[in-house]
Specification:
The structure is a single chain. The chain is mostly helical and 221 residues long. It is 64% helix and 2% strand. It is built from eleven helices and two strands, in the order H-H-H-E-E-H-H-H-H-H-H-H-H. The protein starts with 7 loop residues before the first helix and ends with a helix.
């Protein structure tokens, strides 16, 4: 079952797990999940009217799909972006969902940081912004993302990682972007990914990361 009405985070994780496996979500179930996601708009903890995490999420602590912990405004913003992304992918053909989605994301089209630099306030938030805008009809998204990826390149630490960009959420995001600049950053990160899959751990986040990295390495030239 995809929908967990006690937790936006778990619902998003369930969606991303299915997408990562290559499976599809039936339209009827997708609409149901998307409608619940957009029903979280404007609830306590919402970021700019986007879907909000639930009280259980805040109590238990919020993590992205790859396991990095989120706190404060970044948690609300990133989960809002991830939720809006999921609502778009599952429910953009549903009138109710599309109306709510458009209302929740109207502010993004005037987000000066992203429009001018291709990044948002920080590396973590930028990654969520990239993941979301890439799958939507965001105007000039490729140009914005290329600018953002140049910022990321400039923040390389020289060892396969970047300053300000959490590694696993970063490579997960890059793997979704069909851009030469994204593939260039994945090639830069290859040594760390190769080392990671040689030391497999058994917790849920490690399994996800291994699956993500294995797919990246299989397709990276």
């Amino acid at each position: 079952m995809i929908l967990d009405t006690t937790s936006l985070t778990k619902t998003i994780d369930n969606i991303n797990t299915i997408f990562l496996s290559g499976a599809e979500i039936a339209p009827a179930e997708g609409f149901e999940v998307a409608r619940w996601i957009v029903s979280r708009q404007g609830e306590k903890g919402s970021y700019r009217g986007m879907p909000a995490p639930t009280p259980v999420d805040f109590e238990q602590g919020i993590r992205v799909f790859t396991g990095e912990r989120l706190v404060s405004a970044s948690a609300r913003h990133i989960m809002g972006q991830e939720a809006a992304r999921a609502a778009w992918l599952l429910g953009r053909n549903d009138v109710e969902v599309r109306r709510a989605y458009d209302q929740a994301t109207a502010w993004m089209h005037a987000a000066s940081d992203f429009l001018e630099q291709g990044t948002f306030c920080c590396g973590r938030c930028s990654l969520a912004f990239w993941r979301h805008t890439w799958v939507t009809k965001f105007d000039h998204k490729e140009a914005h993302l290329v600018k953002g990826l140049q910022v990321m390149k400039d923040l390389r630490l020289g060892d396969g990682k970047w300053r300000n960009f959490p590694f696993f959420y970063a490579v997960y995001t890059l793997s979704e972007l069909d851009l030469d600049a994204a593939r260039e950053e994945l090639r830069y990160a290859r040594p760390i990914m190769e080392r990671y899959v040689r030391n497999i751990r058994m917790d849920v986040y490690s399994k996800r990361k291994v699956t993500i990295i294995t797919k990246i390495l299989e397709n990276l030239n």
